[in-house]
Amino acid sequence: MNNLLFMPIVIPLITAICLILLWRQRVIQRLVSLVGCVSLFLAAALLFSFVAPGNVLAIQAANWPAPFGITLVADTFSALMVLVAAFMGLSVAIYSLATLDPERESFGYHPLYHIMLMGVCGAFLTGDMFNMYVWYEVMLISSFVLLTLGGERSQLEGGVKYVTLNLLASTLFLIATGMLYGTMGTLNLADLGERMRQPETLSDLQLGLMTTLPILYLLAFGIKSALFPLFFWLPASYHTPPIHVTAIFSALLTKVGIYSLVRVFTLVFIADTDFTHTILLVIAGLTMITGVLGAVAQMEMRRLLSFHIVSQIGYLLMGLGLFSPLSLAGTVFFMVHVILAKSALFLVGGVLHRVAGTYDLKKLGGFYRSSIMLSILFFLPAFSLAGIPPLSGFWAKFALVRAGLELGQYAIVTAALAVSILTLFSMTKIWAEAFWKAQPPGKVQVDADQISRTLASGQTALPLLLPIVVIAALMVIIGVAADPVLAISQQAANQLLDPTDYINVVLHESASLANSP
Amino acid sequence: MKISFSVILSTATYYLLPLMLLFSVYLLFRGHNEPGGGFVGGLMASAAFGLEMIAYGVNSARRELRVHPTTLIGTGLLVAVSSGFFALFEDQPFMTAQWWYDEKLPVIGKPGSPMMFDIGVYLLVIGIVSLILFSLADETEQIQEA
């Protein structure tokens, strides 16, 4: 039964293989891609249902015992992330049916998409530092090709920035991993965690290095997850590919970086939390503020939203920096919320672009008049992102702010609240420009007819709107009935702060198959 | 018609190609406990097709390979991944080695899922390397024609 842990990795892989074998058969490829996404989602849901009661599952690939083999682990946090990733994978795959152009499709969009999903799920499930590096590479290479697929000039320009910075991050990651292995003699996360919890067995040199190494990892993961001051590759590249690619990138890639930071800074790098987690907190504040200030200056919708990705990353890091049960629960909740909200916004932006042919806010306008439904679909994620009750963003921010107040970290709380207001401001800007104001004369004519023509033709309307409707509905549901999600987040946070189960299951229980349930 | 640029090279290729392919298969099966394996074997086999390409041109090498490199990549991956599934029938973790015959057979060694994995890697490497080589050669030919 523990083999279920492999499924989120094997299903996308097999889907990708089938898609490679069906190269250029577009209709069949679409079908296979959807079937793959649905099965990935079902497998993730099944995995989550096993983990949700508080169990930790682990398995050793090819039965090589930990800490020597490759370990896969699912605790509440990772299973939840896999579930959300699979859900987003399915939603964006449906959406892309309407926005894909034949050229990109016949040059391997579908197989690359699934390889990327495999990398993301792998990074969430792995219990081994080097293996995590491998999944990061899988993710990086496939996302690089997805980013530049189509070969437009701006895409290549963005791609160069993206790949240069991310290769640098990978190099740092690898160097840090080598040093970690040299210091501790193991790369298995559970093994590392166990040793760090017995500091008396470690030499002074080891303890010192285990306070220094986190900074190297912080640099590596910081570039991947777009932290201040390493984020500038993100707004420079995310607006260049087609919108469905941007949506899935914003939903998953930077979040994997944050996931890894949370994992290693709760399980392994706990030698001197006063020092390391204060650094995290300062970076969190600066990331929020610079991100949102960058967004305020933008008039292009995709660029504006890209800066908001950076700003929201700050909140995720804030929970980790505060390092209390409530704040980590806030981070987990926020992660679920921001993945949904951010990609919904990008997807709505894609619909606006499809109708009006531009992402420029100055040229857009009049959407409220011509389509109430589209306005609501934008309104929900936008104001959820800003943290307006009763939407999901409110609870996420509430948990973080309350944790900050309890710990007396007033500076970061002030920053978080101020950034919320600025977020609200720039969401209102999109609202006022694209939806509220009248149609700017003479530029792009949008009328109700045109929208209904675009949206009423069943073939495009269903895949375009269905994912957004589902995501928006989820956001309302999470907001109104926040209890179950908060409970799961709380459980995930408790497991992160007290990884006894995690360590035991990996090191002492799953070593041989006789003990597996 | 095969168009050759150098008589010596084309004649040598004529004899070398089968030898190299044979050697690549030898490397493949030797690989489980000794130096060799699917990756090196695949490289050797694609080197053979590379030689054919240099001697007789890219189209001839394509004909010689018979299947499209992309198909090879897909098939190789599929074979390699499916080798992991045999462990599931025995209720063991994915990819645990399964042996189908207890003794070493001559030439091919101990048959089991690791060998299947190696064969998958072998096909995959042939596919990828020849895809890269053929694409590069296509570009060069276009430049030469222009």
| Oligomer category | heterodimer
Strand percentage of chain B, roughly?
under 5%
Question: What is the number of strand segments of chain A?
Answer: 2
Proportion in helices of chain B: over 70%
Of all protein chain pairs, which has the greatest interface, and how many residues does each chain bring to it? A-B, 17 and 18 residues
Kindly estimate the percentage of residues of chain A that lie in beta strands according to DSSP. Answer: under 5%
Number of strands of chain B: 0
Helix content of chain A: over 70%
Domain unit count of chain A: 2
Largest beta-sheet details of chain A: 2 strands, antiparallel
Largest sheet of chain B: none
The rounded distance between the terminal residues' Cα atoms of chain B is 23 Å
Instruction: Determine the N-to-C terminus distance of chain A.
Output: 8 Å
Estimated structural class of chain B: mainly alpha
Number of helices of chain A: 22
Short summary of the structure?
With 517 residues, chain A is mostly helical.
What's the layout of helices and strands?
The complex is a heterodimer of chains A (517) and B (146).
Chain A: H1 7-21, H2 26-51, E1 57-60, E2 71-74, H3 76-99, H4 102-106, H5 109-125, H6 129-148, H7 153-184, H8 189-196, H9 204-224, H10 233-237, H11 243-267, H12 273-296, H13 301-322, H14 325-356, H15 367-370, H16 372-386, H17 392-406, H18 410-436, H19 448-456, H20 458-480, H21 482-497, H22 500-509
Helix pairs in contact in A: 1-2, 1-5, 2-3, 3-5, 3-11, 3-14, 3-20, 5-6, 6-7, 6-11, 7-9, 8-22, 9-11, 11-13, 11-14, 12-13, 12-18, 13-14, 13-17, 13-18, 14-16, 14-17, 14-20, 14-21, 16-18, 16-20, 17-18, 17-20
Chain B: H1 7-30, H2 38-56, H3 58-65, H4 69-89, H5 113-145
Helix pairs in contact in B: 1-2, 2-3, 2-5, 4-5
